[in-house]
Each structure stands twice: as C-alpha cells, then as structure tokens.
Amino acid sequence: MMLGWTGAFLNVDLNKNKAVSEKYDESLALNFLGGRGFAVKILWNTLEQGTEPLSPENKLIFATGPLTAVGLPNSGKLVVAAKSPLTGGYGDGNMGTMAAVNMRRAGYDTLIIGGKAQTPVILHIRDKDCEFVDAKDFWGLNSFETHEQLIKKFSRAAGIVSIGPAGENQVKFATVVSQEGRSGGRSGMGAIMGSKNLKAIVIEGTGQILLADPNGMRKLAVDGYRELQTKPSYAFWKRQGTMSTVEFSQENSALPTFNYREGVFDKAEGIGGFSMEKIKVSNRGCPQCNMTCGNVVKDSEGKDSELDYENIAMLGADIGLGNLAQVATLNRMADEFGFDAISLGNVLGFAMEASEKGLIAEKIRWGQFEEIKALIVDIAYRRGLGEVLAEGVRAASAVVGNGSSEWAMHVKGLEVSAYDCHAAPGMALAYGTSSIGAHHKDAWLITWEIKAGRESYDSEKVNRLIETQLIRGGTFEALTVCRFPYNQLGFQLEWYQKYLRAATGKEFSFEQLNQISNRILNLIRAFWVREYKEKWSRDLDVPPMRWFKEPLTEGALKGSVLDYEKYDEMLTAYYEKRGWDERGVPKQSTLEQLGLTEEAKTLDAYVKLENKPIINTTLQNTPFP
Ligand code: PTT
Ligand code: SF4
Questions:
Q1: Does any ligand 2 atom lie closer than 6 A to the CB of residue 290?
Q2: Which of 6, 25, 383, 442 has the fewest CB atoms within 10 Å, measured from its CB?
Q3: Residues forming a β-bridge with 160
Q4: Alpha carbon of 272 to ligand 1 centroid (Å)
C-alpha cells in the first residue's frame, strides 16, 4: 500500500458522463512525485502529438502531491495543467483551494478530465461517488456568483473551482478560479474548462489521507507553523504579502510601466504596499496556511478585492493607472470574469500602445479607467477589439502588424509577468527558459540578481538560474505546496525532507529531489518540442525585442538595454549545462540518464535528437503550432 499518496487518479470522460477511479503504479510516484510531475507525464502519455488545445481530446489535469493537504504549513495547493491554448505548449498554474484538500480526502491525487459535455455541466465528486449536474442555471454567472451559489447548493466545506465568462468564451488567458480570489492556470486553463462545457467542479472528501507517520506529521506541522511565526519578516509579510514588491520594483527600475517601455512609474507610491495598508480590511488566503497573503481592500465600488503584486503592477503601472482603488476594481473584474490578471494587463497595455501609435482605430488611452473597464468587458465577451485581444498578445500583434511583435510582451505566447528586464539579463533568461512561457514561477531571479550585479551575463547567473528552477519549478510544483515559506520567510528545505519522510515513510535526499525535478523539467521541454516540431527554434527562448532595442528613458537606469549577443551566449551556456543541444532540445543522453528512454524515442521520431538543424523561425513570431 502506498502511504502519503492516495495511489489513485479519477479519470473523467465528459463525452460519456463517466468517471472511473484508477490505481497508478508506485514507480510514477517515485519518479515524478506529484503535481506538475504527474501532470506532464499524463499529458505526454495521453495526448496525441498536435492535439488541438481546445478540442475534447485535450486533457485537463488537477494534480496534487504527497504533501498536499496533510496539515503542514501552506499545503492547500494543487496544479492545474493542460496543453495550453495560449502557447501551444505545456501550460499549468498553481492555486490554493479547498478543492486540493477535498480531492485528497476523497481518495484521489489527480483528476484527469477529457472529452466535452454536450451541454454545460458541473462535476460533483463526493468521495467515491460522481455525478454530472446540469449547469444551465450557472452558465453566464461570474466566478464569485458561481462559488456562492454552489456553496448554497452543496456545502460550505466543499472544494470548488469554477470559471467565469472569460473561461466560458474561451479567452485564451482565462483561468480557473476558486474561493473568490484564488486564480490558477495563467496560460488558459479556464479556457480549457470552457471548451469542455465544464462550469465547475465541486469536491467533497470525507476520508483520511494515509500517512506513514501521522503522529510525527502532526508534531512537525505544529513545529513548522511555530517556526514560521518566529521568522523576522513574518509580521511584515502578514501586513503586505507580495505588495511590498511594488516599492522594490520601483526602486530598482523593474516596475513594468507603459507596456514595459519604462521601469519606473511616477504614481508608484499610490499603488504600493503602504498605500494598500491604508485601505486594507483583512487577509485572505489558501487553506492550511498561517501566513495568508491575500490583501483584501475595498475597491472603487466598495467591493472586496484581493491584491497581489503582479496584479497591481500589471493593472496599474503597466497601463498607466495610479489610483489603487480603481486598480482594485480592475483586479476584482479579473477574478470575477476569470482572466489571468498578468496577461490582461499585458494585452491592455499592448492595445494602448497600438492606439497611441495609430495602429488600431479604437481609442484606448493610458490610465483611462472607464475606457479600460469597457474594454475588459469586451474581451470577456469577445466583442470588437476585445475579440482580437482575447487571443493574447502574440496573436494580437500578428493582426496589428507594423512591427508590433517587438513590443508584444510575451515568451512563447505567454505574456510576461511583472518584472521589467531592460536591466536584468538573468531574469530575462528566467523568462526565456521558463516551463510555461514568460512566468516568474520557476525562477524569480531578480532580487538575487540585483544584489549579485545586474549588468553581468556570467555563468554564475546561469548556474543560479538552473538551481532555482529545479527547486521552485521542480520540487515545489511536484510536492505540491506553496513555496512562499521557503522563498519569502527562509523556511529551510530540510523541513520538506522531514515532511516527505513522515508522509511517505521514504527518504528523499536533495540529490534525488533534484533528479526528479530535472526529469520533470526535461519532460516539459520535450513536450514543447514535440508539439512545435519543425517550428521549434532557440529563438523561442528569447524575450521580447523591446528590451534589446529600446533603452529605458527614465529613472536611475536610464539608457539601459539588454545585449542580444551576450544574452545568446548565456543561452548557449544554459543549454550546455542542461544537456540540451544548440536548439534547446534535450539530448538523447540527457533524457536517458533521467530514465526517459521511451520519451527520447518518441521525441526522436518528431525532431531528430542528433542535432539536425530544424527550420529557424524569425524571433518569437512562430505561428501557433
Ligand atoms: C500565478 C499568477 C500570480 S503569481 C499572480 S500574483 W503572485 C496573479 N494572481 C492572479 C489573481 O490573484 N487573480 C487573477 N485573476 N489573476 C491572477 N494572475 C496572476 O497569477 C498565488 C500565490 C502567488 S501570488 C504566488 S506568486 C506564488 N505562486 C506559487 C506557485 O506558482 N507555486 C507554488 N508552489 N507556490 C506558490 N505560491 C504563491 O501562490 P498561476 P493562488 Mg495562482 C487573485 O496561479 O497560474 O500559477 O499564476 O494561485 O492560490 O492565487 O496563489 O505575486
Ligand atoms: Fe496561499 Fe499566500 Fe499562504 Fe502561500 S502564503 S499558501 S499563496 S495564502
């Protein structure tokens, strides 16, 4: 019997309204751990190459890991994954939700959802029972209304994930939303739910997760919570969460401003952590967490809105809006409609710049609150300019043309998150090589880079990047728990080894954990290459040209710009250290060393692993594969 893992997946076929519980082999758990590891392995195994992301054949995965929901600090998280409709590659997000807790208590580590319901449905799971509930009365509701209605219909203790109108209308950057403010799956996981006519999933789990050492885990969990509270930054974290990053980014010319033209914003103070504190009403957060970081404020309409740094930077500075209560309204709209707030800010900034340059007929101006609100609604319902922007910034720039691809701020189709990189080559490489496109999840290198020397492109940065990607993008995404105790409060990694021992009864050395992470990240890379086939090119690992060509014109780092040749050298060094060829494709030997021999054979059939050149595309303009 497996301990720590439930050992079962729930396989749901919406074509047939059927759900089957499946045992999986222990070797999967030992080699891929859980979360992102399970997700990529399932997608690799079950999707045909070239599967259309919004087709019934795509699989939507909700995956937990051996540490999810076992009572230890910040363990109420899951990974939501699929082949992304925004990027055409591997896509996922990590969200805190009671659905993670209930899924494990219902006896499942992972839900695998395929097919498409004929009419909108809600999947209701109660332990081993499953039903498909007609969702006609819910379709069209926003995610907050959906949550409220479903709690009334089922139970307050149920775990609920749902989509809003953005997901229903298959906006390519629609997310899955939970608990009025947790949002996951930046690269369009909500659109996948919409394409399957799946409005929501309600899970009620009443069982117990079997652990190797339950008493040991209880004690370790209490010790962990106590230790977190003693951390010097704990109190400030509870006050501001990620919001203090606004001041950090502004001081370091990294706050995305006017569609990443600049790294400083003259109204930054008004949208920063200390301004937020003045209107803050409470903290909200994920289950099983004692450092809850969601800052709830009253927005310009008097409604609650939960603020994080990324959302505020992207729906504030990046679109020229300096009124925090108004930014909070846009943030709430993002959660209600179920958009990714980062991509939303990005497409809005792109539209404003295109409008300013006279490249589109519509007038949409920096910082004009009413115009922005109206455009957000149009994106959700795919009306007018909204229809173009609903496809994401890469596709929008293909429509707008006129060189706009140089300031369409994305990598591999995923919009850049909220760190300007004119003067941060390491962070630029982190975006370039991230597992899902330009997201900071795998490697938030910028704080370290600023201390280490931001002007350098040396191998220390490459080493640090890979180390960070393995821990954050590999281990934490597989465990599957929140990484904030570790990277924000300095909670040591050794804790997680102890937790793993108590959960599974097995020892995992750091070398083993790194090996698992490396396996996961290599398989993710192999997935991208398999899906892009001959369209794959190293250019896809290069961030937007704006950062190379258009220097900052304001702030202490005025004149800064990235150096293309040096970036390219750094990319080569990165590939060598990863065991990838000059195209960024994992070598046969690399995959074999990680036990991915079968996967190497499959990949070889699509892209010769002996380093034969494949078509080189122009920078970042690869059409959707
Ligand atoms: C995450 C991305 C982030 S990363 C932020 S703010 W951040 C934005 N939050 C959004 C939001 O809120 N609403 C919305 N409509 N769109 C949003 N888009 C953006 O989505 C999130 C926290 C945060 S807040 C971060 S960094 C950490 N991320 C973790 C991670 O990736 N892995 C992990 N093991 N632990 C993490 N802990 C932290 O979790 P995505 P959440 Mg999110 C409202 O989903 O797709 O990964 O994108 O899930 O429960 O809200 O927690 O400064
Ligand atoms: Fe969720 Fe924040 Fe707690 Fe992490 S620290 S579990 S993101 S509330």
A1: no
A2: 25
A3: 202
A4: 18
